[in-house]
Automatic annotation (TrEMBL), chains A, B:
Residues 185-517 form the Glycoside hydrolase family 20 catalytic domain. It catalyses: Hydrolysis of terminal non-reducing N-acetyl-D-hexosamine residues in N-acetyl-beta-D-hexosaminides. It comes from Dacryopinax primogenitus (strain DJM 731) (Brown rot fungus). Its EC number is 3.2.1.52. Residues 14-147 form the Beta-hexosaminidase eukaryotic type N-terminal domain. Pfam families: Glyco_hydro_20 (PF00728), Glycohydro_20b2 (PF14845). The keyword Glycoprotein applies. Coiled coil: none annotated. The active site is at residue 344. GO terms for cellular component: membrane. This is Beta-hexosaminidase. Keywords: Glycoprotein, Glycosidase, Hydrolase, Signal.
Amino acid sequence: MFLLLFLVPAALALWPNPHSVSYGTSALILSPTFWIHWASTTPAPGDVTAAISRTMAELYTDNLQRLVVGRANADLPALAYANSLPMIHLEIIGNSPIKSIMAEATCILGERDESYTLTIPADGTPGMLQANTTLGLFRGLTTFSQLWYSSGGVAAIFPYNSFFPGSSMIYTVQAPVMITDTPAYPYRGLLLDTARNFFPVADLYRTLDAASYVKINTFHWHITDSQSFPLTVAAFPELSQYGAYSAVQTYSLQDVQDIINYAGARGIDVMLEIDTPGHTASIWESHPEYVACYNEAPWTTYANEPPAGQLRFAVPEVLNFTQQMFASVLSTLPSTLFSTGGDELNTACYVNDTIFQDALTASGQNFSQALNTFVLGTHDTVRAAGKTPAVWEEMLLVQNVSLGLDTLVIVWISSEDALAIAEKGYKMIHGPSDYFYLDCGGGAWLGNDTNGNSWCDPFKTWQKAYSFDPLQNLTASQYSLVLGGQQLLWTEQSGPENVDPIIWPRAAASAEVFWTGANGPDGLPRNSSEALERLHDVRYRMVARGINAINLQPEWCALRPGECNLV
Amino acid sequence: MFLLLFLVPAALALWPNPHSVSYGTSALILSPTFWIHWASTTPAPGDVTAAISRTMAELYTDNLQRLVVGRANADLPALAYANSLPMIHLEIIGNSPIKSIMAEATCILGERDESYTLTIPADGTPGMLQANTTLGLFRGLTTFSQLWYSSGGVAAIFPYNSFFPGSSMIYTVQAPVMITDTPAYPYRGLLLDTARNFFPVADLYRTLDAASYVKINTFHWHITDSQSFPLTVAAFPELSQYGAYSAVQTYSLQDVQDIINYAGARGIDVMLEIDTPGHTASIWESHPEYVACYNEAPWTTYANEPPAGQLRFAVPEVLNFTQQMFASVLSTLPSTLFSTGGDELNTACYVNDTIFQDALTASGQNFSQALNTFVLGTHDTVRAAGKTPAVWEEMLLVQNVSLGLDTLVIVWISSEDALAIAEKGYKMIHGPSDYFYLDCGGGAWLGNDTNGNSWCDPFKTWQKAYSFDPLQNLTASQYSLVLGGQQLLWTEQSGPENVDPIIWPRAAASAEVFWTGANGPDGLPRNSSEALERLHDVRYRMVARGINAINLQPEWCALRPGECNLV
């Protein structure tokens, strides 16, 4: 016989890693009468009450055994004499008025307070979760729910499990736990494109659930594109009526509000994007007079993918239409952020377009001047609604639009472009394709492309995303321009059928990069070997919660931290 | 206003393309009293009756509108005056005894008869499906179910829909249809690895359903590997008791029979693989005395991935054990095929293994001779059970084992290796990683591998798989050695959560390559532009049937054949 000892990992499942954390080595079980106590005299807002209920449910339904060889069996001896946690108190500190999670999550980016402190004593006395805001409390509840495991089916054979007859114990092995936490960056997002392929509301709900589990705080909703226009616009209902794939493949006004509210209750702000003036071929379906080069062949000349079609931005009526469309949508959005898009504008589209060229001539402007007029005009509309515009990097770096300095610029083409944005003094959101594009590596999708490859091959692994340094290439004086970042899913080859496994747990990587920052709570630089142990746990817990997150490795590896590293 | 005309595609949704087919241009609706009539005097076997029931259910639940702009609306005018199909007769021709689908599907590879003829008149008279076997009839039913669409929710506004009050019409637009069909190759498989990560029985059922939709006829079940041993072996229950990830992550004797029966009833033979003598570290958990270099570090020296561990094949007791294990399993398998594996044998594993080296010395054999003894010994056991052994290519090309000429050799390392196999005169199954590996392109999965890539990057698109020529590199005299081929999913980064989208509809590519052969029914070489129209349909129909098959393109492209080609 051979014997081999495996080290039981000390790290458990917190993700993203908190700013500061200390663990003990005591087992602690949840009391059968455990409850979460709202300790303020002011009644809890409705979304806080709902979050408490969800947390309670997760504790009892995750049913996740610890990822070690032997699973929960390894912990049973320690549980025999464990104290039990009777409750945690939730306390808002300070004197600010208590608002809903959603109100806190949708306020101005720099003013959100997501910090909290969490203390779980080992001695059987109540725990304490404190924060300045309900949003902070919600982040703390998310952390709290990640501390606990189930003794699973094995509990039945264990005599000490008298608390839960016929059930399993919920426990942690690392009490006491003391956590002080606050995010390193205010913007931690996820982009989903619902235009190339459509996603029913239920799929967005599930995606928002998963995002909230790793403290992502912004859903960058790329809701329209050249392929379809599923967004119902009150002022222009014909846009989705003709531009959506079908009547059922639309987001009604109520759907959008439902999604915003669902996200808000989970600490997530929705930054809607109506991409302009490119990526607008679907507007041709209802307003052909506003769109140049619709589906012109060969598409390669007029667009990065079929179908071609872009707004005739030099036509005054087109700016007027776009402003009215934006205004109609903006009035329904609680967020202070709105993206007007601006990527991949194709100039060839306009060369032979008489309507565009005539308008340009009539305006006395050149191409750049007319684009400037259009973009700044739409941004005026965004600001008039009390919001801050965001744009893709080309608006600044390629088209040289004289954007207001409040504008957020989103990096996507290359991580190296951050420096140029910083040098121009703009705030930025990192979403570089070389680290964060979730769709890369899926192969060519054009019909007759036998040997083609994904344009941004290879696949961007979680390790690659995790290695991203938000400050790379920047000088210290530019650091404050970095608001955060996000992973992104463009959906040429995606839909409801693969949205879970292509996003999760990968998108947890950037969630930790931008929450935890450069160093882990141990003060050492983040590293993927340490992170993997926790990320396995994130994945298994997501699966327990109904998210089809993929296996990162064979389960053999998940149970044996460090055994499946590159050597 | 601009106007743009789209061509309505002539090709509909048959996949794989039949050997010979002719379509008309008449619309034909299913009669509200449509039924499938078993025309023989001998009662239908149970799995035929079940297949008829499933086909009827699919007709009424697929609810798939045709993939054209305007969807079913485009067809409504033609449906107004359409005849309706009252029934099809199912007829076994010839005088052979009528057997179950499963009996026909599991008989000797070269003797299976999957041919059928299907005639659907346009004039409202009954259709006819004829075959020599129930297996042929089942293939014909599969084809039949692909002909039909639903007029969907729009039917309600259409006055002619009096047949189905409150429901939609089921119709085809291409009657009459006359099909004569038979596969080009007898082996059309799909490999799934259930050892690196475990798949519950329900996931295998769903995978088998999808495979049957595209006439795949072999499930190559890689059931054990170094990471886990989920297979319950009656003679050695300890193998799964200790070698499985957990007690619930096992396949019981009944599970295996259930899966075999489920597959058989769908025209699919199950070729089980117990990989030996490599890929056997999980046997160490119950029989450490049989396994060399278990989890030795660094694993890179001893295995292609962790954990290392291989059978001490030079030890007589190990051969004896393996033969008894195989015999115990083989006695439960109806298939005439069984794979003993044989890939990636690592020689370093044995260099310092005293037990192995002592046994080698005692045997008076060198390494190759001992391996020959082991492999041929296990193949004797396979043949004694009345079955034909299959092996991975290294057994022949690297280890030079003197395999019996009946042995099937499976290509995997490179498509170029087919020639060497043929030159040695062996029959082969194509599964080359450069065309058919479904796991390629998923990125590095080792824990600390920030910039690593999938070993077989890039992603193998359906177009790439579809471009495979089974006879490439071979001379005409060697063509008969090609039995067929398969796409393969190794599950380092897969599990139940992504098994559908990573396999489907991609694995339909090889299903058509090996069913349809080099030329389509139009006599022209298969090409991916033509195929894509039909493959979209395969994908949408799979989704309708509960398979999470991915979008191959934006839906805009799916509705507009040819518009999203590389130009």
